[in-house]
């Protein structure tokens, strides 16, 4: 077994079919990292030239010392202990000949999984033990967790997995005449019009490089139509007024027993009328300023084979109460389920505290919490490692 350098095409063809594929282990991602040199390395069986693993390795220098960075994770079978050990040891020997000091890797491979109640569904400590045996040193103590929806269900069946709060917010956004559309031109200026504080250069870099068939970045917008918003609630108000009149007549009819159920229906109807009137007032205020409607939010996504990554998201702060992040994600999920996508990555969470709004929001889509192995350094030169690591921290 040995390490060889691969061409862009060789790496791309291997990466797109590997079980550990991710948008960071792509030639597109490599192109976004302009401050790094790049290497595509393959791990081959010399007997038959079979490619057993691969990795994108980004190189930079700290003073005169070479260090490497593997974004995402190695494209190797982490469950095959012997293969993984052979790969790491061979890679380490190869990097020694290239005068590397150490190699940092994200290791986004999942080793623990939690359900919506925080109960452990899957836990594999074996890979952690192997990492400790192989000259790896862990970089952070805080676990890295992300929320991922993985499903092979239809859109309707997937929607049933959402919690009641998520469904309620989706329906409310639809009643408020919010629609989702894709900007075919990926115009970042439209995003900037919503929020000028976004990292324009970073997003433009992603859009410029993730533009192939297998790995592609797209921008979706949420737009509100205030005239339709008004009409939707006028219709609901008219229907509820008719219902309220019937209930009122029943309440005034001495021949009808005033049951608790009837009284409750009348009270709920009164509340609905008040709510609909308030919505009409809100819609009218928006119509006064945005007669033809306006974009109230947007999100950048990356499509990587059969996985969708939800990336940067912005919203109009003036109309933040009307923007539904639930709807924009649901429309994207629905669209790509129909196209064969099965994995929707909502991104990281700080913790699984039930008071954490970001955690509750992401879990509302029926996903699970994936805890990854986390960032490690593979020490190549143990004599220089501590010194160069310290210099790196000081320079940051």
Order of helices and strands: EHHEEEHEEEHEEHHEHHEHHEEHEHEEH
Backbone CA Rg: 27 Å
The computed structural class is alpha+beta
How much helical structure, as a percent, in the residues?
A: 40-55%
Count of runs of 4 or more consecutive helical residues = 13
Whole-number count of domains: 3
What is the name of the CATH topology of the largest domain? Aminopeptidase
Kindly report the average pLDDT value.
93
Unreliable residue runs: none
Q: Please give the CATH class of the largest domain.
A: Alpha Beta
Number of strands: 16
| Sheet with the most strands, sense and barrel status | 9 strands, mixed
CATH architecture classification name of the largest domain: 3-Layer(aba) Sandwich
Strand percentage lies at 25-35%
Shape: elongated
Describe this structure in words.
With 396 residues, this protein is of the alpha+beta class. It folds into 3 domains: 2-107 and 375-395, Aminopeptidase (3-Layer(aba) Sandwich), CATH 3.40.630.30; 150-221 and 299-370, Aminopeptidase (3-Layer(aba) Sandwich); 227-289. It contains 13 helices and 16 strands. The protein has helices at residues 8-15, 27-32, 81-97, 126-133, 155-159, 164-175, 188-194, 200-209, 226-252, 260-289, 325-338, 357-363, 382-395; strands spanning 2-5, 37-45, 50-62, 65-70, 100-105, 110-114, 120-123, 136-138, 145-150, 178-182, 215-224, 294-304, 307-315, 343-349, 368-372, 376-379. It has a 9-stranded mixed beta sheet, with helices on both faces. A 7-stranded mixed beta sheet has the order 1-2-3-4-5-16-8, with helices on both faces. β2 (37-45) and β3 (50-62) form a beta hairpin. α9 (226-252) packs antiparallel against α10 (260-289). The radius of gyration is 27 Å and the shape is elongated. The model has no long low-confidence stretch (mean pLDDT 93).
